[in-house]
Amino acid sequence: MTTPQTPGGAAAPQYVYGVTRADAQLPDGLTGLDDAPVTLVTDGGACAAAVSDLPTGRALGERADLVAHQKVLNTLVEAGTTVLPFRFGAALADREAVEKELLAGNSDRFAQVLDGLEGRVELRLKATYVQDEVLGEIIAAEPEIAELSQRLREVPADAADAVYYDRIRLGELIAQAMERRRDRDGQVLLDRAAAAAEAFARKTPAREEDVLDVSFLVRTDRREAFEQAVEELAGEHGDRIRIRLIGPLPPYDFVPEA
């Protein structure tokens, strides 16, 4: 592990990945955008910025740039480094600007955020319905849906246009029933997992079959208990809900808005 402080070109524009402790050590050989070495910039205070030279001659935004940004942050997290991650695209004119414009006026605030993240990891839980199983539950529990579904299955193909609105109605009823189950099941999963976490940030499900998408802030000394709780949930609901745990991740969801 090294703590590089002096880059090859001090006046080069700098890309900023995030902020960490001034005494943090970077993993050996850590590189970022365009494989440029990642180094630390400090203003002499409690915090340091993880940076690399900004690519020149082109605009940022290529997929490789996004991957490199995330790789740097993931590597720091996996190494146990407490980091305040920056969103993709942060850059300053040079290392002096990083010191004076980013760190000098924000050191106390950054240190406070890092204190809140110290000894904690972000873990993301995603739960998705096994659609055939849940659809079977809905049909068994909802007589109106079961009756309409059966009636539509018996309609000849050449008469499909005559039941167009019935098919729309069936879709609406299934969606409503799915939403009710999602609300109930999602809350059950959230309550059980949250008991072993310090905080959580719930996201809006992106798809109809998504039950829960939530990030948890977990103390490292409680991580085993948290993962055990999630494993128990997966065992209890595995026939109808697929549960995945992702992480540790850069703690974007637990960094206060500027």
TrEMBL record:
Pfam families: GvpL_GvpF. InterPro entries: GvpL/GvpF (IPR009430). It is found in: Gas vesicle. The keyword Cell wall biogenesis/degradation does not apply. One of its GO terms (cellular component) is gas vesicle. Signal peptide: none annotated. It comes from the Bacteria. GO terms for biological process: gas vesicle organization. Its main location: other. Keywords: Gas vesicle. PANTHER family: PROTEIN GVPL 2. Belongs to the gas vesicle GvpF/GvpL family. This is Gas vesicle synthesis protein GvpL/GvpF.
